[in-house]
Amino acid sequence: MNVIYLDNAATTPIDPRVKEAMLPWLDENYGNPSSVHEAGRKAKVMLEDTRDLFAEFIGVRSSEIYFTSGGTEANNFAIKGSAFYNLGKKDHIITTAIEHSAVLDSAEYLRSRFGFNITYLKTNRFGEIDLKELKDSITDKTFLVSVMHSNNELGVINDVKSIAVSLNNIPVMLHSDMVQSLGKVKLNVSDIGVNFASFSAHKIYGPKGLGVLYIKKDSHVDKFMHGGKQERDRRGGTENIPAIAGFKKAIEILKDEMNADIEKSSGLRNKLISELSSQIGNKMIINSHQDNSPLERGTAKQGGVFIPNIVNISFNPETTKIDPDTLLIKLDMKGIAVSSGSACTSGSVQPSHVLKTIGYDDDTARSSIRISFGRFNNEADIEVLVKGLKEILA
Ligand SMILES: Cc1ncc(COP(=O)(O)O)c(C=O)c1O
Question: Could you say which of 343, 344, 392, 393 is catalytic?
Fold first, then answer.
C-alpha cells in the first residue's frame, strides 16, 4: 500500500539528495573532526562549511552556531544552561503554556529540583501571547523569556521580533524554539533579536539526531553537555558528522527550494481547508485558521499568522462521536498517516495542553488531529484524506 504521509511536523522523510550526501560520511569519510590527520581535517572542513552555510541561511555569525543532538537538546541547553549560569543570582523564567515538552519539562525540572519560579503565559484563541502580560510578568529576578516561534500543534507564529523589541533595555535573555519555523518562513535570527534559538534537522528533510542552538555573542549560558572541548568548548561530544553532512545538503536544498516548498504547502492547506469545510464542515472546528472557528465567529478579533504546513482540526463532540485514536487507526488502515496533537506526546490520553490553553474543553481538545504537509505531498493526497475522513465519520 502506498502510504500518504501527512505528518511532516512530527518528522519529514529524508530527501533522497540528503541521503546521497550523507553516504560518504558513513563510509569512507570516517575521520573525527578533532583529529589532526587528513581524515580528521576533511571532516572538520565539512563541519565548518556547514556552520558557515547555516549561519548565513539564518542571518547570524558562524561563531554563534552550536551543533547539538536535536531540538530537544538545544532547548535543554538554552534553558538549563542559562538557569545554571544564574543559579544563586536570579531565579525567574517566563515561558508560555503552549511550548514543546522540551521547554516545559526543562522548566518544570528547574522548578521542582532547584526552586526556580516559572510563569506560564496563557495565549489567546489562536495561540498568541499578550505582550503586555509578558512585560507585566517581568521582575528583577527574571533572567530568561522563552517563547516558541511557531507552535508544533497549531502552526501559529508568535511575533518574537516584537517581543525582543519590547524587552530592549530590560536585562533578560530571550530564547525561541524555532524548530517548526525553519524552512516554513524566512528567518533572519539577528534581526528577530533573540539570544538563543533552537533548530532541528529532521523537520527539514534532514536526518534525526541533529540540532542547532544559536547563541548570540556575549549571551551567558553554562556548558550543558560536559566532555571534550568540541563546539568551542561549549558542547562536549564528537560531532555527528554524517548527520551534519545531511543537514548541509538539506540547507543547500532549502536555499533553492524554500519558496517553492512554502507555495506548495500553502496551496495544499487552502485546498484542505476548503474541502474539509465543504464536505464535513459541521462536524469539525479548524484550529489553524484565522476566521473559521465557531469560538471566534462574530467577534472582532481576526488573528493568527500560521506557518503554511499545519492544519489542526477538532471534531465537534456534539455532532461526532469518535475517539481520535480510533480515527487515527482507521486512517492508518487506509494508508493515511496523520497525528493526534503533537507526536511527542501521543501515546498519552491526555488532552492536548495547547488546545486546552486556547480555550477548548477536555472533550474537544482530546478530539483533535494534526495534518501536516511537506515537499513530497500533492493535491491527490488531500483528496484521499478528505474522502477517507468522510467515510470514517459517516
Ligand atoms: C517545536 C518543537 N521543538 C522541539 C522539538 C524537538 O526536536 P527533536 O525531535 O530534534 O529533539 C520538536 C519536535 O517535535 C518540536 O516540534
Answer: 344
pTM of the model: 0.95
Please give the span between the terminal C-alpha atoms of the chain, in angstroms, as a whole number. Answer: 23
180 lines ligand 1 (CB under 6 A): yes
Query: Do 304 and 215 fall into the same domain?
Result: no
344 included as an active-site residue: yes
Give the C-alpha separation, 94 to 110, whole Å.
Answer: 12
Angstrom distance (rounded) from CA 142 to CA 144: 6
226 lies in the same domain as 349: no
Question: Mind listing the pLDDT tens digit for each residue in 97-143?
Answer: 999 999 999 999 999 999 999 999 999 888 999 999 999 999 999 99
- Could you report the per-residue pLDDT of 328-340, keeping only the tens digit for each? 999 999 999 999 8
Q: Are both 237 and 281 inside the same structural domain?
A: no
Q: Last residue of some domain: 204, 224, 252?
A: 252
Domain that holds residue 99: 16-252
Q: Which atom of ligand 1 is nearest to the CA of 343?
A: 14
Q: How far apart are CA 173 and CA 83, in angstroms?
A: 11
Smallest Cα–Cα separation from 280: which of 201, 163, 209, 385?
385
- CATH number (domain holding residue 296): 3.90.1150.10
